[in-house]
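Give me structure tokens for this 270-residue protein.
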Amino acid sequence: MTTIPQLQAMKQAGMKSVCFVAWDYHMARIADRVGADIVSVGDTVGINLWGHSNPLEVTFDEMLIVAKAVRRGVRDALVSCDFPFGPLQSGGALAASVRLVKEAGVDLVKLDGAADFPEEVERLTRAGIPVFAQFGITPQTSLKYGIEYSAADKAHIPDEMTDEFVVQAKRLEAAGAVALNFTNSGPVVGPAVVQAVTIPVLGGFGGGPWLDGRIRMATAALGYDEKWLDSEPDTYVNMARVAYDGLAACAEDIRAGRQIRGGLRTPGAS
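Here you go.
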């Protein structure tokens, strides 16, 4: 079973940490069995699973429901849950974190835009709640940098901002964060931040092998997106095509009056 000290020791040993984003019990079980170090409940569930147009639409209560499902599926990895936009910005971070720990059983809380709220990171740390601090050009801070959310995954932190983000990373470590999620780090700023702190620095989009580990949505790694029905994805498999072909075959059996696979066998059915 992964622990936070083990995660931090991996950085010192030069071992990369694996973090998969999952939003349901079964994907969480699969990610855990693969050997993920962290299974993250991302607030991008609204866009990537529910069809929202903006990540800010997701509510805390919705995140709590998803976190509970993922927690049930994970036995060995650390479970992290994102704060949706709201609790951190309105001063409710501690109360929200307590609910995530008590009701969903999460091991870490991930705070988007945490560099602007080091005092909240300190409060949670004093309360004994481990913080996975997210900073960089993130879903909740992209507008601050003049970047629309839809373009955030293609953003790049300019090299001349290296010192600024090193300061932010050190500030978060000093506040008690146990790990950092550096979004859109880039190959210059990213390594500088990794070397500046003793805690693990992971990253999703805009990251690379220069970080201590990577964060990847399980659905993105698997090509589970309707758009990939029309073109070949740069993913490990094309689950959209697999799902389409499977459902099409099922529909064909139903229309032909044949018994469907995996259903309860009915006497007399062929």
